[in-house]
Predict the structure.
Amino acid sequence: MSLLEVQDVTVRFGGIVALDGLSFDIEEGHICGLIGPNGAGKTTMFNVVSRIYQPARGSVRFRGEELLEVPAHGIASLGIARTFQNLALFPTMTLLENVMVGAHSQGRIGFGRAISRLGAARDNRRTRDNAGDLLNQLGLGALAFRAAAGLPFGTLKRLEIARALAARPKFLLMDEPAAGLPHGEVDGLAETIRGIRDQFDLTVLLVEHHMSMVMGISDRVVVMEFGRKIGDGTPAEIQNDQRVIDAYLGAPA
Amino acid sequence: MKPLISIKSGGPASWAIRIACALAVGYILLWIPTRGSNSLIDTATTALTLMGAALSLNLLLGFTGQISLGHSAFFGIGTYTTAIFVTRWGWSPLKTLPVAFVVAFVVGAVVSLPALRIKGVYLALVTLALGVVFPQFIKWPKIAWLTGGARGLNDTGFKFDKNNRTYEIFGWNPWGNLRGENVKPFYFWIGIGIVAIIYLICRGLVKSRVGRSLIAIRDNSTAAAVMGVNLAVTKGIVFGLSAAMCALPGCLTAMKGSVVTPDTALLTVVGSITFLIVMVVGGAGSLWGPIIGAVVFELITEKTSDWVDPDKIPSLIRPIFSWSDTAPAGGIFALALVVLMFVAPLGLVGLWKQTIARVVSVVPRPAGSGTLDAPESSAGGIPTWRPQQEPPAGDEAE
Ligand SMILES: Nc1ncnc2c1ncn2[C@@H]1O[C@H](COP(=O)(O)OP(=O)(O)O)[C@@H](O)[C@H]1O
Ligand SMILES: [Mg+2]
């Protein structure tokens, strides 16, 4: 069974049809690339899975469960985490605290136990240590106690990955993680993505414009244009698909 | 520039500082009711009232980012709950505190229902309406049998009589003379109790998973929801809790004064604005902000209360305030607010932290099983991603 099954999803914004009957599946354990020109609807697809946008039609199943019946705050505890294309961090918090909030769905301390301090200190210590480990792993340990506001874009994109991992997800959606990185660091990022996939048993949906990276690490690639799927296959198949070349890839350099 | 001194968080130096601060606070708290003048005790009790209200508002606005201009109504719910239960049903004033807490919690949670859908200036308007309506509601003739209408209620506080015991400790009388001869210290201690309860509730929340989720809602509510924060429930409980806590200092107002009317300043929108200013000047989103703010506010109010007479104003600043025919404390605070917003948007506490950070740096306890700076050999053997050089900020590739 596929981990995620997207079927006939349609999202409209006024007159704009952002997703137009989109369907595709993702296999467990895969890194699935999602590519397509700007405005194709990739980010919209992420927001449907996060339950930020409500589709007019369609179904999204995760391990057989209908996501469109789950509230937005219930998605994380199902094991789905994401990063944002334009960053959605907590600017006044330190990097460490940002990652600690990422573990929210893992915690048990509610209002009663927070006020009475029953187990709150232990919960804090554990959450903090896990967050610290994740920051170290992503090379952000030295910045742990800096506020997120004002740090370089590429650093913050990495922070988003650490924060997403804090939720111990099974399925990770990454929206353009290489944006803003100098060319030399893109290979390192690809290594990191493959590494976290193996370590945490992740399935990854990766939106990226960096073609060499997407083609290098994806097990499969889905191509979108105007809210529709126009191609779906292994990287090799996609690179030779005439329709995809015309719409997005252009002639090979 | 590097700070001169560095202190390890949780280390001996940091504990020494904490203990010194606690001793200083403890000394002041004992000195005021035993050695201070009556007017000082009064001023301190008023400061505690403002402190409680501003701390409550801070949880909602400072930490969660939800504005309320209706907290005077919750404050008033406390005042009237105590006044009504004491005068109509003869309850002991202290027993009305939990009742007021529950009533205000319910009202606050109900008010939060529209607040879940609206934000910013609209939320300000809805809660402002609550603050405006509250005194009118109390005056409503149909419920005057309960609230006393515009004339208010009398004898809403404690009844002291000659047979009460007094509690002397080595000739000290920290609680006051409960035979009714000098009861001011008694109210002071109730104020301390109320502020302590509110502070501990806020502190427990802020330093926990819940507190992180509140700040997350304030910073980016969409991202908070994606992390699993239930926005509706969290905002609803925080609104209710903030309202409930704000009712407690309201109760104190009824206990220590003998008359309660709907036109008491803190029960009108003036109260909401006062709580807001105290909180912002002290430092929004910091646990100690409202405490410092309330102390400073009361000190200024006290020092300038006789400035109605221009000759009493220090000559240096007389030209600025001599035109005013009321005491200029409000004006001074408004000016302070404007200045502060430029130099220290996080209030006096923010200013203090900025300043002290130049001299003392606090080294936080390292987080994680490894040390912070050794990502080479991270657990799990994942290739660590070392940036060769930080990219310039904001060069977002679309
Ligand atoms: N919140 C929104 N309101 C209106 N239009 C939107 C919104 N979000 C996305 N769109 C539109 O939907 C289309 C798809 O956008 P998006 O999903 O961001 O594309 P991509 O991520 O593939 O570049 C675009 O035409 C965009 O303008
Ligand atoms: Mg996008």
Q: What stands out?
A: The first strand of chain A starts at residue 4 and ends at 13.
